[in-house]
């Protein structure tokens, strides 16, 4: 187990209530199948958001994963079609349909009529202090719920999110995709006071799915394993066809966030104050972490001499950021569950 820089909650024996907010997406789809195969989780709902692909596709893909997993007891709610203030930017790496071009049958079930933000409020308010959110897409749905229902921040147990980076982005030199798509929404979440665990590119880039992993998934014998193997194999082939170099395969960004929620020993966490840049033309979506220095803004302009140099002389580091990862521990759980061995 990796050493931890911060105290963590003790092991929990009861089912842990979660809402999964997602924008499937290849790795989102694998994360959903992984979560639905994890006996520690009681998935109260899946809320879909526009991100990797537009909302109609993220909803359909979430419904497909629910059907494949045989978990039609889990409601799927449609959320935001666009970020809070920006035009939607999607990710071409997930293909036109979000699943790398793989065609699964159209889902037979439908999303619930309730909007995602309302579903989040209802589920959390019904069990205050007991429901966590695993967010693996842009944070628009979660931000919308927090803005519409201000009291909700004190009732959410925790938010574990895939997003951000303290070591550079993948959309711009500064910004990771999920935060880049909706930096204003991300800022709402990080400033909400909810306990946040950030699983960003600092660790997800070290969890690379390879041919050996895919072969293990392909050895599974049920519908979930077969679907996961098709998605993973196709994604690796597409990765190679695009001429990607420097990596043997795809980073498992979103599955690592799910794994971190289940088993904190997968990562090492360090406490930071995390601020999201929303103003910079070149840096919007950057997550800036402060741990041991005063929180400062840029130097004041001459014509705005009243602007304080320091946003705050003191700050509270309330975000746990994953700074190291144990890839072997992650893949042992991830692959075994997708293959139906655990």
Describe this structure in words.
The two termini are 20 Å apart. The chain has 342 residues and is of the alpha/beta class. The longest helix is centred in the C-terminal third of the chain and has 19 residues, at 223-241. It has one domain: Inosine-uridine Nucleoside N-ribohydrolase, Chain A, CATH 3.90.245. Helices cover 32% and strands 18% of the residues. The strands form three sheets. It has a nine-stranded mixed beta sheet, sandwiched between helices. The chain has a two-stranded antiparallel sheet with strand order 7-8. Strands 11-12 form a two-stranded antiparallel ribbon. It is built from eleven helices and 13 strands. Helix 1 packs parallel to helix 2 (55-68).
State the gist of this model.
This protein has 342 residues and is α/β, with parallel strands linked by helices. The protein has a single domain (16-296, 306-338), classed as Alpha-Beta Complex (Inosine-uridine Nucleoside N-ribohydrolase, Chain A). The protein contains eleven helices and 13 strands.
Strands ordered across the widest β-sheet:
3-2-1-4-5-6-13-9-10
Unreliable parts: none
Please tell me the total number of domains.
1
Secondary structure tally: strands: 13
For the residues shown, what is the average pLDDT?
91
Name its key features.
342 residues; alpha/beta; Inosine-uridine Nucleoside N-ribohydrolase, Chain A; 9-stranded mixed sheet; two-stranded antiparallel ribbon; 11 helices; 13 strands; globular
């Amino acid at each position: 187990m990796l050493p931890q820089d911060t105290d963590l909650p003790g092991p929990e024996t009861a089912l842990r209530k979660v809402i999964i907010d997602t924008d499937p997406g290849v790795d989102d789809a694998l994360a959903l199948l992984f979560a639905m195969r994890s006996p520690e989780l009681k998935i109260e709902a899946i809320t879909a958001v526009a991100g990797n692909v537009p909302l109609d596709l993220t909803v359909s893909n979430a419904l497909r994963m629910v059907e494949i997993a045989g978990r039609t007891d889990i409601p799927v709610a449609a959320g935001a079609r666009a970020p809070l203030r920006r035009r939607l930017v999607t990710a071409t790496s997930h293909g036109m349909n979000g699943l790398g071009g793989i065609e699964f049958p159209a889902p037979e079930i439908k999303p619930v009529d309730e909007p995602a933000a309302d579903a989040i409020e209802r589920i959390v308010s019904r069990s205050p202090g007991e429901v966590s959110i695993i967010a693996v897409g842009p944070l628009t749905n979660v931000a919308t719920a927090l803005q519409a229902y201000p009291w909700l921040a004190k009732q959410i147990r925790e938010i574990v999110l895939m997003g951000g980076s303290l070591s550079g982005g993948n959309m711009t030199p500064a910004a990771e995709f999920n935060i880049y798509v909706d930096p204003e929404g991300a800022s709402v979440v990080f400033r909400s006071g909810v306990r946040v665990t950030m699983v960003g590119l600092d660790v997800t880039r070290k969890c690379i799915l390879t041919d050996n992993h895919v072969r293990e998934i392909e050895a599974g014998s049920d519908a979930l394993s077969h679907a996961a193997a098709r998605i993973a194999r196709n994604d690796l082939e597409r990765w190679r066809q695009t001429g990607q170099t420097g990596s043997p395969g795809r980073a498992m960004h979103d599955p690592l966030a799910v794994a971190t929620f289940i088993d904190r020993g997968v990562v090492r966490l360090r406490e930071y104050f995390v601020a999201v840049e929303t103003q910079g033309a070149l840096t919007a979506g950057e997550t800036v972490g402060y741990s041991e220095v005063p929180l400062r803004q840029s130097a004041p302009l001459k014509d705005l001499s009243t602007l304080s140099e320091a946003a705050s002389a003191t700050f509270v580091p309330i975000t746990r950021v994953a700074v190291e990862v144990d890839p072997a521990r992650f893949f042992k759980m991830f692959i075994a569950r997708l293959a139906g061995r655990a």
